[in-house]
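Protein modeling request. Please complete all fields; requests missing the sequence field cannot be processed.
Requester role: graduate student
Desired output: 3D structure, token encoding
Chains: 1
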Amino acid sequence: MNDVKIAIIGAGFSGLGAAIKLQQHGFEDFVVLDRGSDFGGTWRDNTYPGAACDVPSHLYSYSFAPNPEWTRSFSRQAEIHAYINRVAEKYEIRRRTHFNTDVQDSRWDEASNRWIIDTDRGQYRAEQLIGAIGPLCEPNLPDIKGITEFTGEIFHSARWDHDYDLTGKRVAVIGTGASAIQIIPELAKKVAHLDVYQRTAPWVLPRADRPYTGVEHWAFKNVPLVQQLSRAGIYAGHELVSYGLTHNPNLLKPAELAGRANIARAIRDPELRAKVTPTFRAGCKRLLLSNTYYPALAQANTDVVTDGIDHVDTTGIVSTDGTHRDVDVIVVATGFHVTDSPGFEHITGADGRTLAQVWDHHGMSGYKGSTVNGFPNLFLMIGPSTGLGHTSMVYMIESQLNYLVDYLRTVTERNIARIEVRADEQKRYNAALKDTLSDSVWENGGCASWYKDKFGNITTLWPGFTFNFRRATKRFDLPAYQVNTEVGTAEPVAAGVN
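Delivered output (498 residues):
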């Protein structure tokens, strides 16, 4: 068994950020475990054609590791993946990371106040467990009758088969979310025919994407203040959107006008325009950005299918109106398990229940997106109620890193062996979030989205300005926690929150 003070599961933006901050603050006894072959997480795994970020480059990077070499205002997948790995090399995190290591189970051992972590390459025992698995790591495959009978090729957007040549093929794309609107224009260029199966038309706004000029590159590299001011300006502009999302959806009317204009510029056919025009308020689902999506839908080799899928057979897809469409390839762009990640099934708390079992009753629930009652010495990165609908998740990650470092400093200085958020504090915290969300466009915008869990609760999003989350996580608030300083003699804990 490998004994460490701290084990970090995941080597994406949040896991790498945690490792860097631990190292910078003197926490040297830690290990990073990841099932992949290098750093990057989501940006390592999602290599589909057209993969790119929908947050401007300067904001979608660590504040402590700015990148003056971004080639475009909106970075593409390969560039983000390379950036993450450069940062890892700069801070020498690779030497502490075990790649190609699949974490199969993590369980709290009450007798020793340790986490026992089983992997396919051995067992680890850690005083603190940092779960940085991320919400976009487990593909969500659609439950469609007969899909296993299909004799052609099927792959999820996050598991792209680059060895298969799509040129001249008949392809169906299921889904019209963030990944799909990037994939569809790329496929439309090369396939013989493309069927786009749309359940709900999304709001797609113009994308202000362009290459940076030589002068801009020089300024970013030689006058760091220029990049800092650019980052600050982008951040401020995006924060203005959050007020409309949370408090006054009418303020998002300009977004709806921009979305309608985006459709009008590219699509002349009135029937197709009607199909792709959203019927819910802008912001209710994630706002998407693209200049190429609607032109791709207007191409002669593309059909938008709004009838639901009844079943799949050996040669194609049958929609609910009885139409059979032959295809060679089915591309599944149906997102990820966010509120019901399989990863939750492999983290077992003090009472023997997994996170999945605890959250199966009333949905995800935590405290400041970081800790969960019933799971001592566990710190989650990008946990419940930390997702965003308007700006960069890296900002939220860095806010959590402030909380994490102060948490570990407090545990170390006070010789705390077992620490767990109090049930009443967690309940109070989530009640306040729910109250804030009640006026939001996500509740009142007239759509169903992955922001909501199976109970209809929004347990993924942070409501409001992100600087309020940063303020809330600036310091670790020990009074919200129940602690024990003696190993093996933990005092009774508060009743669990379901």
